[in-house]
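Justification of resources, computational component.

The compute hours requested in this renewal are based largely on the per-chain cost of generating structure records like the one below. Each record pairs the submitted sequence with a full structure-token output. That output is archived, and it is also reused by downstream analysis tasks.
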Amino acid sequence: MADGRVGVGTSVWDMLVFQKAYAVALETHRVVHSFPKHEQYELASQLRRSSKSICANLAEGRARQQGSTAEFRRFALIALGSADESALWCKFAKDLGYLTTNSLSI
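The structure output for this chain reads:
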């Protein structure tokens, strides 16, 4: 469906929420490269993984849907948890001075 709702025959790429999550994950990858070297395997890594997890769970939930929305709902809730985790890591990064309010352009 072109309106971003999940329906039979809808690709995950047609979902507005997936498109936005994917854009956030790409921008996150770009931004965290500016973090200090000692954070590349800690905070930056956590932020990269949690942002990609949002997309991955939406894609997996869509693939498992097969006519029932129960599986999609389950994976959407997991994606929501990953979004909250990403928000937490962003707050850490901002409080440590690695991110500004304008760092993410989306």
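Residues 37-98 form one domain. The chain has a mean pLDDT of 88.
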